[in-house]
Design goal:
Length: 552
């Protein structure tokens, strides 16, 4: 009995009367009574010792090892002796043990709440079953919903970014204290009015960090006109990469020459001369290109005649975004080869297939049956294509006269089956120029060197490298000179980029001066996406905000 008293929620306020243990149901029932002789009225706060009656409350408590603990609590009802109080009879409160009308002890409710905040609904149910703390998913979500947001001081440096509640349809705004890296609030949309209203309600912010959004710029100017706005340097370089990619898209033949020069030394040693017919585009590709070229010329012709964007899109049956894209290029933009690679259902099993092929050279059907037993759900044709690649990639040795009468063998498979190199596109080239020198491979450095030697790309590369240097080296005094060079250049997309920087001149220049970054906001935004997907179907803004803020 004395040992068991130490496991009670509050030994000073409870007196253990007796206990029972049910080994079959793994339950322990403990009967206790309150030791309070006086109680305080919850309305008038007056003390009284006059007992009206006694009753029992059944509470669930933290489990003891593998046994669930149920507490039968005997409490008193008291008379309120204050004649002016409208409450005549009240139940004694035990604030260190249980809340009024609750069926769980405070410490048990806190444990369930912590599990719910960390895992959400369904995952919390699965963990609770292992911890002997079973509750439904709705119960866990209700525990989160009852929590209140913590009181926080107005941050001095605030980071702002948007996030998707439903991608493509509904977006919100995340606010983060950049000094403590703690989220402050989630706003229901990403409009300037909502952000301005929040900033007006929280005066005292000195620095506001954001991306290049004009909406956030207007909201910050309206809500906190005295605060310093900082354009995030990552987004400045991201905008540069998009500009450089557009400038490169009109020089597709240049990239083909560079790619051919890069691959020529690798292919000259062993590769046979390519079939000229294989290099020609197919008739369908030529037809598609002709249609796009005709549309491109029609868009520019109508624009020169004074037609508006929406009228051009209506007459030609195109989207307005496509019209904007065509008008942004001075020359016809060729299709860029994709550099994305989709994963295959066979990827997790390729290591096993390669190992078996090197050791035993089994038949494809046998390999297919083996990986099916391991969980493979793909088709036999996918496995056959992969084994065909293994067979074709191995060297074909001429058999010696001594082995002509022997059964033909397959020979060892190569360690790394040959793969086609990634095509050099405008996007990949722009990405290479933004990489730091210490992260580049020898092949990438060679590609960059060849690109810099192309006269058609010289102006764009010079402007891009100049902007990268002034951003990474923090050279605000060189910003004006670079803007003048970009505005006076012959590249239209860089003129547009420079015009946008001038419209946001103060925030851009401050970004090159202050050591403020929106990086913590981007990191917390990724965590918010994880929580949203974890609560798919139940991730309303209030519930999502509480899990996001209270667990940070």
């Amino acid at each position: 009995m004395e040992l068991l008293e130490y496991f009670l929620p509050d030994v000073s306020a409870l007196n253990l009367k007796h206990w029972e243990l049910d080994a079959e149901s793994h339950q322990m029932i403990v009967t206790v009574c309150s030791t309070q002789a006086m109680a305080c009225c919850p309305l008038c706060q007056s003390l009284t010792g006059r007992v009206h009656s006694r009753y029992e409350r059944t509470l669930n408590d933290l489990p003891l090892a593998q046994f669930g603990l149920t507490i039968v609590l005997e409490v008193c009802k008291f008379f309120c002796l204050n004649e002016t109080c409208r409450r005549r009879i009240f139940t004694e409160r035990l604030p260190t043990i249980v809340a009024p009308w609750a069926r769980r002890t405070l410490r048990y409710a806190e444990q369930l709440t912590a599990i719910a905040l960390s895992l959400g609904g369904s995952a919390a149910v699965r963990l609770g079953q292992h911890l002997n703390a079973e509750a439904s998913r709705n119960t866990f979500l209700h525990l989160i919903d009852r929590l209140s947001f913590p009181e926080t001081d107005t941050p001095r440096i605030l980071g702002v970014d948007d996030f998707a509640l439903r991608k493509g349809h509904q977006y919100g705004t995340i606010l983060v204290d950049l000094e403590t890296h703690q989220p402050i609030a989630l706003l229901p949309d990403r409009t300037a009015e909502t952000l301005a209203a929040w900033l007006k309600a929280h005066p005292g912010i000195e620095i506001l960090s954001r991306d290049r959004s004009k909406t956030y710029k207007r909201g910050m100017s309206e809500g906190a006109p005295d605060a310093i706005q900082v354009a995030d340097r990552f987004h400045l370089l991201q905008n540069l990469e998009e500009t450089l990619e557009k400038a490169f898209k009109s020089h597709t033949p240049v990239f083909k020459r560079v790619e051919k020069a890069t691959l020529a030394p690798q292919d000259s040693a062993a590769a046979p001369p390519p079939d000229p017919a294989a290099l020609l585009p197919t008739q369908a590709a030529e037809s598609k290109r002709a249609q796009r070229l005709e549309r491109y010329e029609q868009v520019h012709a109508l624009r020169q005649q004074g037609y508006q964007i929406k009228d051009i899109a209506h007459h030609l049956g195109m989207g307005k975004r496509t019209v904007y894209t065509y008008l942004s290029y001075e020359t016809f933009p060729e299709w860029q080869p994709s550099i994305r690679r989709r994963g295959s259902d066979l990827d997790p099993y390729k290591g096993y297939l390669l190992e078996q092929w090197q050791q035993e050279h089994p038949q494809t059907k046998q390999l297919f049956n083996d990986i099916q037993q391991q969980g493979y759900r793909g088709s036999y044709a996918t496995v056959a294509r992969y084994t065909r690649q293994l067979r074709q990639s191995q060297p074909q040795a001429q058999p010696s006269p001594e082995t002509l009468n022997e059964l033909p063998g397959r020979g060892p498979a190569p360690q790394n089956p040959t793969t086609s190199p990634t095509a050099l596109s405008a996007r990949r080239a722009a990405w290479l120029f933004l990489q730091r020198a210490e992260t580049l491979t020898a092949e990438q450095e060679q590609t960059l060197e060849r690109l810099c030697q192309q006269s058609a790309l010289t102006d764009a590369i010079t402007l891009a490298q100049g902007f990268i240097e002034l951003v990474r080296q923090r050279l605000p005094e060189e910003l004006d000179g670079w803007l003048a060079k970009a505005a006076n250049s012959s590249i239209k997309v860089f003129q547009t980029f420079a015009k946008g920087l001038k419209e946001d001149y103060d925030a851009v220049k401050i970004a090159l001066t202050l050591d403020v970054s929106n990086g913590p906001v981007e990191g917390l935004n990724n965590r918010l996406k994880m929580l949203k997907r974890q609560m798919f179907g139940r991730a309303g803004l209030d519930l999502l905000a509480k899990r996001f803020i209270l667990t940070s």
